[in-house]
Amino acid sequence: MLLLTQVKLPVDHTEEELKAKAARVLKIRPDSIRFLRIRKRSLDARKKDQLLYVYELVLSLDGEKEILKKNQGKGNVSVYEKTEYLFHPVACPPEENNRPVIIGLGPAGLFCGYVLAKNGLRPILIERGERVKDRTESVNRFWEGGELNPDSNVQFGEGGAGTFSDGKLTTLVKDKEKRGQLVLETFVQMGAPEDILYVGKPHIGTDILRDVVEHLREEILREGGEIHYTTRMEQIHLKDGQVSGISCVNWQTGAKTHIACRRLVLAPGHSARDTFAMLRELGVPMERKPFAVGVRMEHPQEFINRVQYGEMASVLPPADYRVTAHASDGRGVYSFCMCPGGYVVNASSEAGHLAVNGMSYHDRSSPHANSAIIVTVTPDDFAGEDVLAGVAFQRDLEKKAYETGGGAIPVQTWKSFSEDLPSTPGSLTPVTKGSVRYAELSGIFPEYITRALKEGIRQIDTHFHGFAMDEALLLAVESRSSSPVRILRDEDCQSSIGGLYPCGEGAGYAGGIMSAAMDGIRVAEALTEGYETRK
After folding, report:
1. CB 265: neighbour CB atoms within 10 A?
2. Inter-axis angle of helices 206-222 and 132-143, nearest 10
3. Sign of CA dihedral 374, 204, 520, 82
4. Do 521 and 115 contact (CB within 8 A), yes or no?
5. Is the pTM of this model over 0.90?
6. Is residue 457 within 8 Å of 473, Cβ to Cβ?
7. DSSP symbols for 490-513
8. Residue 349: per-residue pLDDT
9. For the chain, N or C: smaller number of CB within 10 Å?
10. Nearest in space to 233 (alpha carbons), one of 269, 200, 204
């Protein structure tokens, strides 16, 4: 088979036109193409009056050797070499008290468990929240005015925080080992749309992602894994500097259990603040790390489409954007987790505190786009030496957001925020999951964050004209962009506490579904070292 790159066509082309264009580039008849598969598709939107899709194609042709020879020197035709992730050697099933244990069923924990299960290691997975179907019901009740469940919510539960997001599958992590390829291919096997394998900015959507998570769980169970839901780890037990087991409690029944283990993967997510506190008391090495806080900003999706696509907006899916700026004090201001056709959701996980996130369904059909517009903060912004000072900073913002909105999501138009005016409804109605209340947001943030947000949004508007439209909406507080701590580990993914493997976004080694899943795979590979392998 051959790989053909840099095939460009107008965005409204047909499948037949794609095949015909490939044939023209190769100077062959279309009926010589026995098989055609899209390897990658990206959008070239540099010229709004000439939007193009750019393809990489895998082709099976008659007379491939002659065609390759004829196209030598062009640089866009080569032999296609299929690469794939290779599982490590299958391990002998460990004895019952030496099975690996994984804390957390977010992307990191799920994919760590999946790889370990495929290697015959029968992992035990511990999840404080509910399985995804029950968790979704709990979250919907909360959004409709019910009581917050601090153990099963937008942050905690099967699938992790990403389950209530846009389901974006992009990452800046290089994929030499094909871990990312494994993640995407596994998602497709579990029910995700096949186009995530080739589109430039793949996404699943929270509705489809829930089904994918269920199927991934069933595969882990089928391969010998074991999962305990509504089970919160309360303590890690050590012996001679080595993990020896964990104590857990089922918050539904009150039952307490002890699980002996010598290999413990810690993938609790970025909101497991009680777990961070327990690790600090245990003396597990951690360090403070930078993160970012700010607001969710809503615009009409039609406006974003028009700016990004011009007159071709009607034939393309809802547009996204990525924007950056620098405040006068040098702080970065940037968009994060942009959700085309999405909702701003109440993503709280602690009583009396409020955080927001963005979410989209697969069809991205909401009339509004939203994105986090956030400002960088560093450990230097926090007084004292407490490793959890960043957690305290987040909590303070979330407490003020809760009080400002009276328990609802506080919202303010850009005009009133930027000009320090009273917060009153404008022409746009917030598109949210959870109730809202108009309020002044500036009292939530330290002055330097408020100033940076104003400067950054105005700066973005100089090249993204209309971004700072008067009626744009700001909703607070976006405080969970990433973990405020890093649980230290060595090159073998292991803490100085023997047998403890920090993993994923909560441990400070990922940022998003893809990088977290890839880190879960990496930790699974490291953990298999030391188990006896089959001859």
Report:
1. 32
2. 150
3. negative
4. yes
5. yes
6. no
7. -TTS--SSBTEEE-TTTTTS--SH
8. 97
9. C
10. 269
Bridge partners, 437 (sequence order)? 410
pLDDT for the residue 75:
81
Decide: helix, strand or coil at residue 59.
strand
| Tokens encoding 141 | 């009740």
What residues form DSSP beta bridges with 245? 237, 260
Q: What kind of fold does domain 2-79 have according to CATH? A: Alpha-Beta Plaits (3.30.70)
What does each C-alpha distance from 469 to 85, 227, 322, 449 come to in angstroms? 47, 49, 17, 20
Q: What is the Cα–Cα distance from 335 to 294, expressed in whole angstroms?
A: 10
Residue 535: predicted pLDDT: 38
Phi/psi class of residue 406: alpha, beta or left (left: φ > 0; alpha: ψ in -120 to 50)?
left
CATH fit for domain 96-286+488-528, picks 2.60.40.10, 3.50.50.60, 3.30.1490.110, 3.40.50.10860: 3.50.50.60
| Partners of 124 in the β-ladder | 101, 226
- Contact between 343 and 358 under an 8 Å Cβ cutoff? The reply is yes
Which residues fall within 8 angstroms of residue 166, CB to CB, at 6 or more apart?
203, 205, 206, 337, 338, 339, 340, 342, 358, 359, 360, 364
How are beta strands 291-300 and 500-502 bridged, if at all? unpaired
Euclidean distance between CA atoms 294 and 380, whole angstroms: 18
Distance CA 147, CA 314 (A): 41
- pLDDT for 91 equals 58
> In the chain, what are the helix, strand and coil shares in percent, each to the nearest 5?
30, 25, 40
496-508 CB burial, b ≥16 within 10 A, e <16: ebebbbbbbbbbb
Q: Where in the chain is the domain with CATH 3.50.50.60?
A: 96-286+488-528
Q: Classify the C-alpha dihedral 285-291-294-298 as positive or negative.
A: negative
CB atoms within 10 A of CB 66: 11
The C-alpha atoms of residue 154 and residue 356 are separated, in whole angstroms, by 10
- DSSP for 367-413, please give it: SEEEEEEEEEE-GGGS-SS-TTHHHHHHHHHHHHHHHHHTTSEEEEE
Burial class (CB in 10 A: 0-12, 13-18, 19+), 379: middle
Amino acid (1-letter code) at residue 424: T
Q: Which is nearest to 157 in space by CA: 130, 182, 197?
A: 130
CB 281 within 8 A of CB 267: no
Q: Residue holding tokens 């786009």?
A: 369
Q: Where in the chain is the domain with CATH 3.30.70.2700?
A: 2-79
Angle at 158 between CA 430 and CA 389, to 5 degrees: 70
Please give the helix or strand (H or E) that residue 38 lies within, else none. Answer: strand 33-44
Token pair listed for 319? 């547009």
Low-confidence ranges of the chain (pLDDT < 70): 89-92, 532-535
Angle at 531 between CA 526 and CA 534, to 5 degrees: 115
Tell whether the torsion through CA atoms of 113, 114, 119 and 123 is positive or negative.
positive
Specify whether the CB–CB gap between 358 and 168 falls below 8 A. Answer: no
